[in-house]
Structures are given as C-alpha cells and as structure tokens.
Amino acid sequence: MELPVAPQSYQPTTDALVRVIKHHDQILARTACEEMQLDAATVYTNADRPNVHQCNFAADLTIPEDLSGDQVIDQVLEHFQSVGLRCFLLSTADVTWSEDLAGAADQRGFVRNEAAIDQLHRDTQAHTPMVTFQILPARAVYVPFRTFAMAAVVESYAVDERTASDLAGRKVDLLDEPRLEMFVARLDGQIVGSASVNTVGQAGVIDHVYTLEAYRHRGVARALMTHALDHCRRAMFESVILKRTIDFPARSLYESLGFEQLTTFASYHLAGV
After folding, report:
1. Which residue among 145, 162, 269, 271 is buried most deeply as judged by most CB within 10 Å?
2. CATH architecture, domain defined by 120-267
3. What is the pLDDT of residues 18-53, one digit of tens each?
4. The whole model's pTM is what?
C-alpha cells in the first residue's frame, strides 16, 4: 500500500518537501528559542544554552536587492555578537545556495554540509519485532525521559557536562511542541530508544530516531519506526519524509520500511565546533 492514505489532488514537489524539512527545524527551535527577524534572515537564539547548535542559528537567508551576500552574513554574525552568542548554522530560504551567499559563508568560517531527505514511497506494513517493548508517549514518562535524553547525549557527543545537560534539556523542551508526537521504547522498565513525528502542514516529518548503544541490533529502532508509521497512517499525511546524514548507518532500515532518497540539500555549519 502506498501512502498517502487520504485522497489528494497533487503530489508535493521535491523543492516543497525540502522547505517542509527547513520549516520543521524552525518549529522545533521555537519551543526554546527567541526568534527575531532581520532584514535578510530569521535568527534563533537561546542565551541559557549557548553551545546548543539547534538553539543558535540563522534560517531563511536571502539576499535583498540592496545587500550583498557578505552583508547578509555579516548582519547575522553582528546580531549574534551583540547578544554574546555564536551562530552555529546557516540555512537559506531557497532550496539552493547562491554563489554569493555560499562564498560569504565559506569566507567566515562556515563549512558546507549535505543532508539527505528520504520519502516514504511504499508502505510495507512492517510488523513490530517479537520483543517485549512498550511503546509509550514520551510525555507520559517525563522524568525517565530526561534521564534517557542525558544518556543519549553522553553517548553521542564529546561535550562538557554543562553542554550535555543543555542538549538533553533541549530534547525535553520538544515535549512542549503540540505538533510533535514523541514516542519512547521501554524495555524492563527502562527507556532505551525514542522517535518522533512532527506535523508540518500535510506532511509528517520523522525526526531523531535513537537507540541506546547497549540495546542496538535488538529491533528497538524498527519497533519505534513501525509505531511512528502507524501514527502517520492514522494522520493520513500526504507525504512522510525524514532528514538524515548522507552516510547514516540506519539507512538500510529506512529502505526496508519503504523509504527512498528523494534529494539532498546543503546548510553551512560553523567549522571546528
């Protein structure tokens, strides 16, 4: 069976789905960040979490007729400097980067990073593995979820204790976003994995599927993805997509569930951090 379940009069274009992913990132940022509109960008900042990349970045970069790419990037960096923070990521309003804007980002210490977008093209109706997992809403297990988030951060990032706490706190903040449905897998009373689905218009965006290292290769991620896709069926989304790194290890899992790479797109990340 092919998604969507709901009747529809058109298929979203590739460019439209790239913009959905970008909008998804901004929706999540608003749960914990201050949002400000500059002349040629929207900036997100959180002074309480100065080292969390997803809380301190610029989106929707454009080049107005009266500005150059250099001036646009400088305006963004000057704003961050004025509030005592660093900008970790730059993302354009357009799907692609102009040479002017890309060159300006590169000259100011940002490096190009390519990500892939996968789209669900066929619904395999995968069955949950025969393991005793409980799949629960993360909001129902708030305190244990905070412990799990901290463990996941420690496994994933080589950061100091303050930054680790901020990264875990940011994940907990996402529970306040009503459009985001976050699920956890619990085994023997312990949360061992999580996955979420964000509603962005008529699209479902699957985000941040993670399993603790000690519980990998036991079907946790597949169980979470199966549950997330069940949620997408009930929501009758026109499209189901996800963003991943180009060489993401779980790509084979996504392919087995019916996802295919749709496209890639670029953002610029501050080098060395």
Report:
1. 145
2. 3-Layer(aba) Sandwich (3.40)
3. 999 999 999 999 999 999 999 999 999 999 999 999
4. 0.90
